[in-house]
Amino acid sequence: CNILSSLEFDCQDQLFAAAGVQQRICVYDYHTVLAAAAAAAAAAADPQDLNLTATTGVRPSLEPLLDLPTQHKISCTSFSAAVQQYLLSSDYEGLVQLWDLSSAKIVRQWQAHERRIWVVDSCDAAPDQFATGSDDGTVKVRRVV
Fold first, then answer.
1. CA distance 35 to 20
2. Are 43 and 35 spatial neighbours (Cβ–Cβ below 8 Å)?
3. pLDDT value at residue 47
4. Which of 21, 142, 27 is nearest to 92 (CA)?
5. Inter-residue contact 117 to 133 (CB < 8 Å)
6. 66: which strand partners?
7. DSSP class of 12
8. How much is the pTM?
9. Is 94 left (phi over 0), alpha (psi -120 to 50) or beta?
10. What is the SS3 assignment for 42?
11. Cα 22 → chain centroid
């Protein structure tokens, strides 16, 4: 993913989602990305030692776990406060999508606003709810189910 507009960690800091104008959401394993960064640093210091897997148990990789194609440019993402594998995304056309990362599928979507949504966020206090804010000057609160 390049030209990012959103980075979001899940509630357990195991995964993070990156999204932007490229019309896709990339989901990464945080610890695997750290291992890849350490491997790159080790390779720069000692080009002969590229085997970080043996010492960390994690195969270094910058490839996403999931590469989710979207219909429009993504403005924001938010992991669900209720269900770890759910990810909300908002886009430039006013659409909010709820992704199930275990199946890499959209399970629900809302035409939430008539214009670009700048922010979507799930609610920790009421995990079945999320809020959106848009260019149309409104903030809306919705239930996931």
1. 24
2. no
3. 52
4. 21
5. yes
6. 27
7. T
8. 0.83
9. left
10. helix
11. 13
Provide the 8-state DSSP code for 15: E
> Would you give per-residue pLDDT tens digits along the chain (145 residues)?
678 899 999 988 899 999 999 999 999 999 988 888 887 777 766 655 545 444 445 455 678 999 999 999 999 999 998 888 999 999 999 999 999 999 999 999 999 999 999 999 999 899 899 999 999 999 999 998 7
What b/e sequence results for 113-141 when a residue is b if at least 16 CB atoms lie within 10 Å of its CB, and e otherwise?
A: beebbeebbbbeeeeebbebbbeeeeebe
**Beta strand extents in the chain (DSSP E only):** 4-9, 15-20, 24-29, 66-69, 74-79, 86-91, 95-100, 105-111, 117-122, 129-134, 139-143
Which token pair is 19? 């999204």
Tokens of residue 117, six digits: 């949504």
Strands 139-143 and 129-134: antiparallel
DSSP character at residue 56: H
- The runs of H, that is alpha helices, within 4-142 are 30-45, 53-56
Q: In what order do the strands lie in the sheet with 74-79?
A: 74-79, 86-91, 95-100, 105-111
- 41 phi and psi angles, rounded to 5 deg: -65, -40
